[in-house]
Structure formats: C-alpha cells, structure tokens
Design a protein that fits this description.
Blueprint (H helix, E strand, L loop, with lengths): L1 H30 L4 E9 L8 E3 L13 E7 L4 H17 L4 E7 L9 H11 L5 E3 L4 H5 L7 E5 L4 E7 L4 H12 L7
Parallel strand pairs: 3-4, 4-5
Antiparallel strand pairs: 1-7, 2-5, 3-6, 6-7
C-alpha cells in the first residue's frame, strides 16, 4: 500500500513540475522577447468603427484598403511602451508605403487628457507621425478587435484578414519580416 502511495506521490510531483516548467517556458517566450506575437489563423479584420476624428487622413475603411497590407497600431500618446514602438512603426511606414503598406494608428486613450484632440494633435506633431491616426475615444475599434494592450500591432493581408498580431514592445525584426512577406518582397528588394 505504501509503495502505491509513493508512486502516486512521485507521479503527482512530476506532473506538477512538468506543468510549472511548461508555464515558465510559455511565460519566458512571451516576455523575454518583449511581448507576445502570434501568427493568426486568418480571421476577417473588423473595420474602423466609432472613430471620433481622423488625423493626417480622410476617414478610411478596410473595404477601400483591399489589395493593400494594413498595419493597425493601437497606441496612446502617454504610454512609454507605445513611444518605444513608434520609431519602428514610422520606419516601416516610410520604407514600405510605396510598396503597398498602409499604417493606421488607432489612438485609444488610457487617461482623460489623452481624449483631447488638441493634445493628440500636439503628440502627433511631437512624434513626427505622418500616417493616418484614428481617434478612438469610445474604444469602439479597440473593442471590435477585442484588443487589451498598448501597444498592439495587427497585420491585415490584402484580403482583409488578420494574419499576425504582436502585443507590447519587441519582435521588430519578426514583424518587419511578416510585412515584407505579405508585400512579396525578397531579402534583396526594398
């Protein structure tokens, strides 16, 4: 009887240890690289909805962007993590906009003062953002994407499907590689 209890105790300990190692590995792969990135099983991207104002652009919708690769960047101007990602997003816009990439910054405020359009315009100027920015004060587009993070990147293919997402900082090379792949660019092009 005691032998069976010992075997059961050892088995339970091994299962618990394996679970802890697996959880730690999942945590490390999510955070050590600066956030979580996933290749999505392609799902239809929600359209921009409930947008208070469009800055740097006339209003956009995904139907008119069919045939383009779209990078949707959920950000807010007082978020340090968002500030760290902006140079990369701006660089991708600059490098690939003439090759079929459209970047849309969806500014969803965390704090009350971030809801003010004047403050947002100042931040856009301060950061040197030239791509379209949708002011999502009511979280309508945020909720349509079921987003939960600042910053969050979603790549939408030419057919309007979300094929990649990344939450937080980091994985810039991986994200750019997906952009290049969607645009059909080889290592030597662009």
């Amino acid at each position: 009887m005691f032998d069976r209890l010992k075997i059961a105790a050892v088995a339970a300990a091994m299962v618990a240890a394996f679970g802890a190692v697996a959880a730690l590995a999942a945590f490390a792969s999510t955070t050590a690289s600066g956030g979580k990135a996933t290749q999505e099983a392609a799902v239809q991207a929600p359209d921009f909805t409930g947008i208070d104002n469009w800055l740097n652009s006339a209003p956009l919708d995904l139907k008119q962007l069919r045939g383009k690769v779209v990078l949707v960047d959920f950000w807010t101007f007082d978020c340090i993590n968002c500030a760290h990602t902006l140079p990369h997003v701006k660089e991708w816009y600059s490098r690939y906009r003439d090759k079929g990439l459209v970047v849309v910054g969806v500014h969803t405020p965390e704090y009350t003062f971030e809801r003010d359009t004047g403050n947002l315009k100042k931040a856009i100027k301060q950061y040197g953002i030239e791509y379209p920015v949708a002011q999502d004060n009511q979280y309508a587009t945020w909720n349509a994407y079921r987003n939960q993070y600042w910053p969050a990147l979603y790549l939408i293919d030419q057919n309007g499907k979300i094929v990649y997402s990344h939450f937080g900082e980091g994985r810039y090379a991986q994200t750019e590689q997906v952009i290049r792949g969607l645009l059909g660019l080889s290592e030597k092009q662009g």
